[in-house]
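Example record for the data management plan.
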Amino acid sequence: MSFLTPLFLIGGAAIALPIVLHLIRRSSREHIPFSSLMFLSQSLPRVTRQSRLENILLLLLRCSILLLLALGFARPFVQQPILPTQETAEPARIIVLVDSSASMRRENLWDTARERAESTLTRLAPGDQVALLTFDRTARQLISFDQWAAMNPSERVSLTIQKLGTVSPGWFGTDLAGALITATELFEESSVNEREPGKRRIVLISDLQQGSKTAGLQGYEWPRGIECVPEPISANQTSNAGIQVLIDSDSNLQVSTNEAPRLRVVNAADSETDQFRVRWEPAAGGRDLEAYVPPGSSRVLTAEPLPGGGFGERLLLSGDQVDFDNAAYYIPQKAETVPVIYIGNDDPRDPEQSLYYLKRAFQTTRRQAVTLTPHAVTDEIPASDFENGSFLIATQSLPDSQAQRVKTFLELGNTVLLALDSIETTRTLSTLLGSGPLSAEEANSERYALLGEIRFEHPLFAPFADPRFSDFTKTHFWKHRRIALDQIPGAEALARFDDGSPAVIQTSVGKGTLLVLTSGWTPADSQLARSSKFVPLLYSALDQATGIRTMRRQYWVGDTVVPTDTNSLSNVTIRKPDGTSAAARPEGDFVETDLPGIYTVGEGATQWRFAVNLDPSESRTAPLLTEDLERFGIPLPKEVPGKTHARTFEQKAQQRSTELESEQKLWRWIILAALVFVLTETVFAGWLTRRTAIAS
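Corresponding structural encoding:
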């Protein structure tokens, strides 16, 4: 038995009224003669323990009338089960996408996400097909559509929940755009060979924090028929503050300078505090650095040195209640020493000569410490200079004996840059090439020459490939030497002047590389040394010559650590912050930077370390708004599908109940029974009244 309007059953409580009335006697049963009572006020009898129910049958009749009325107004009917048909349970393909990024480590967000996923799975219709994915910086498939179809239907939900239980949030950032696009492509791949039933739906279970990467969604064309259902999870503590070590680019930092790391402290807009402290751990005698950061802003600070002038490896932020991002790790950058040999009779103080500009171009940076060692053309260059160096620059004609030593240096696999400051320097070029005399001539230019053709795809000119930096029209060449390219075996012109003659020539000599400039960079030859192109061009040649890629000491979680010649990752053990060991890939790089902390490479004297920190975007834990999701183009449903499905089923069930009640109309018979009871009660009450009157 079911009821269409069950609230009317509350009216059944009115049966208490006749019971109370029967317990209260409004008049005494017997009359006893007594003296005058005119001066006394009449009082009705009260319910006492001595009160007894009388006329039980009359009481039952009156109570039954009230119960029948309440039952009739509740409109009862006999329920019939609704079988799940195609109309009531339309099958759909659903991808459950669960966020497992670092921000989900807060409070109990991950437990809530698992409960939300379990609730979604238990609400599925019998014909639904499901895939389960987790995501952070990449999306990982735990259960595919094929695996779901292969499972026993009675075990699908439990096995999927069990699979999700094996996952926990890591330390990677949140690529929301990549995860949604991956899920969309999974729909497309799964529907290639079979007709896809029903709707396609992505259930997104995430904290939807503002630090999520969403750039990939801009302009993305969503396939038709796909909708994304966000299931946002919120933490009790929404405000957050974070700390990060600023990774500086190459700057003028001397190798001997012990520079303190710079930090950025970020405070959320809804934060209730603005006072923080930063300290080294372990802080052996160090003092805390106080930081005032108003809500919604950030502040850059310089870390306090420890006693003795040194620095620690771990910085801790205090004053913030959300502590998953309150630690930062630091390893000071060490510059690589790069020796460069220069041969020429130049005065380094003379601005009219080449060495003057080389001294100022090769500055010590955070990544490289270039040591330029000048030698005169007739000097006996120490063998150690040739052994340690890999890049040599010559700007003048060399004696044959000196040229032969440079040729040997070149053939061993090193790089030589030769600038032709005159026709005479072609003799040195022919010696280095091991060929006969070369013919060359001075170019006759009434005004100046320009670089008219440049191969920007070559590594030497690659730094200028961007259109913002590819303009060489302001670099004028007053003098240059014309030399036929076919005189140099295997030579290629990396740049040409506007008259078609080569400006930069590259060729191989033995295992080495010879770069030839047909003009110099002195003010008498060109404006090259005084242009913005000179320094990048020299460093490009230096990188090509040495192949040194200085090992960075600061990385983000998930970054790839690329090896260098001096810090190879091959055949060495890498110890992670949790004490476990890992190894580089066969390609020679290291990709298992999945934990924040200090990583140690190798052992003993060759040991070196680097720091890995949490992606600073994970500290932006404020939730995204629905308007933001719509602005990103995410196809949100007009109604939440899980709830919509339940609501649709309820509506159909309510409609079915109304139809059954209208067909059965049991309320009519109940009202009729109530009328019969009313007539019976009236007759019976009248008979009792007459009987009492006769007895009195």
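Summary line stored alongside the record: Residues 91 and 126 are 7 Å apart (CA to CA).
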